[in-house]
Known about the structure:
Elements: H1 3-7, E1 37-38, H2 44-55, H3 69-78, H4 85-105, E2 109-114, H5 122-126, E3 134-139, H6 142-155, E4 164-165, E5 182-187, H7 197-211, E6 216-222, H8 227-233, H9 240-255, E7 265-272, E8 277-284, E9 288-292, E10 295-299, E11 304-311, H10 315-323, E12 327-334, E13 340-347
Parallel strand pairs: 1-4, 2-3, 2-5, 3-4, 5-6
Antiparallel strand pairs: 6-13, 7-8, 8-11, 9-10, 12-13
The site of N,N,N-trimethyl-histidine has 11 residues, from strand 11.
Amino acid sequence: MNPMASVRGAGAMPGQTPRLRLVGAGAHSHRRQPGLDDFAPASDDFGSQVVRGLRQTRKQLPCKFFYDQRGSQLFDRICELDEYYLTRAELGILGASATEMAAALGPDCLLVEYGSGSSLKTGLLLERLQRPAAYVPLDISREHLLAAAGRVAARYPRLHVLPVCADYTRPFSLPACQGAARTVVYFPGSTVGNFEPHEARGFLRATAQQVGPTGGLLIGVDLKKDPALLHAAYNDAAGVTAAFNLNLLDRINRELDGNFNLRQFAHYAFYNPRLGRIEMHLVSIVAQTARAVGESFSFHDGETVFTESSYKYTLEEFASLAAASGWSVEQVWTDDRRMFSVQYLTVN
Ligand code: AVJ
């Protein structure tokens, strides 16, 4: 499938001006594809980070590399699991309160979604926004991004959809958009939990810079709760989370000429109450050596590769994190079981 066809899939015929406006290349983007602002890191970035992570005494791999096409598909399946309460709770909050959220964001806002993935939650919000200036889905997975941008554009033919392929932890510029009253970053899914607290502060400060003094941030934040519920959410019975975690090694095999034996690694996730985070690891269940990027990496029996942190916050903890990073929490919405929160922050 030609992704452009789907991005332009708002009914435009050849020679006709598409109703979907695809403009605004940022200063440093690479136009690998027309209509896409592409800041995606070159693939050697993956290789060098894998080598760096696996050379350490405590081996680790950055969780952003989970989201290749296969990983993004597995993540979508995670969101449908019984045990993975996060997505359902967040969708419930949006369903109940999207009108209030849209009112908080105000008219003519430029909505930028970080890590848009399949843009599943966005419709609820987009439908209630008053004259949105544009929707900018931003994701590291180019194929997933373009497919989702195409679906949003087809569903809302009058909306400007301006996809940006970027790693939002690296510098990038937003597409120019005239007539926007404010820029609001939408960061759902509690992905902020993947950052170490000091990284979260850095990210929040950078986001405040990105949106400017009139900007806002609508963010999903998972809350502290019974560790048994947290544990189950990352150890689903169907093994989808395990497949998601192991896909990282498979991706190394596919893209970096690796020879990891996936049957000799196990998914291992647990809640660390002292640090208030889920830790996800891949445990080597035998002593072994694997190769990738032309290097070899040895593992002791029981040695782990740390693949993801998912921090959980209390409302108070998150408010003080925000305050330390240039933001004020304006409004908080939660589900009745207080599992999850969606929060609207404005720049101080
Ligand atoms: C998308 C980062 C929020 O931490 O819950 C799901 C990713 N990892 N299951 C999370 C994830 C394992 C997810 N975030």
